[in-house]
Structures are given as C-alpha cells and as structure tokens.
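Internal tracking record. Fields below are filled automatically when a chain is submitted to the structure queue. Please do not edit lines marked as system-generated. If the sequence contains nonstandard residues, flag them in the REMARKS field before resubmitting.
Queue: standard
Priority: normal
Entity type: single polypeptide chain
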Amino acid sequence: MEKYLAVIRVLNDEDSITQKQIIQKAEIKLSSPKETLQFLVQLELIIEKSLGNRKVYSITYKGQKLYEYFNSKDDDSIFGGTNINRID
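SYSTEM-GENERATED OUTPUT FOLLOWS
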C-alpha cells in the first residue's frame, strides 16, 4: 500500500508527469512501475494520457480525496488510535 500512496502523493503535488518522473519523486523502489500505475488507473485514482509519443499521469478527484484521507491530521483517520504512522 505504501507504494500506491507514494505515487498518489507525488501526483497530488504535480501536474501531468511521466512514469520516470513519478518513480524519481516517489523515492521508493517499484518492482513493476507499469503495473503499479495501471492498478491505480483501474481504480480511477489516476489517469493516463498520451502526450505525443509519451504517456503522462495525473491524479483524479477520487485520488485527491484518497490523498486527503490518508493525510488528515485528526484521529478520525484510519490510523487514529493505532501505532501505525502515515507516510510523510
């Protein structure tokens, strides 16, 4: 789950960017970046667009809401009352 949230976090902070840029900015190792991105596309958390011969990715409204949920600062998040910390 950490890798998916890292990708969503990067896309929340950026406009449309390439797979290579996502991997660099996420600062995590993705064993199969294409599969990770396609999974998030299937969940409609990000979208894939063709820009010339390149593919770029952007976050969707649904992805933004998920990002906000996992980064909420209150105890009503899914991490409230647990010893689990959010990825910052």
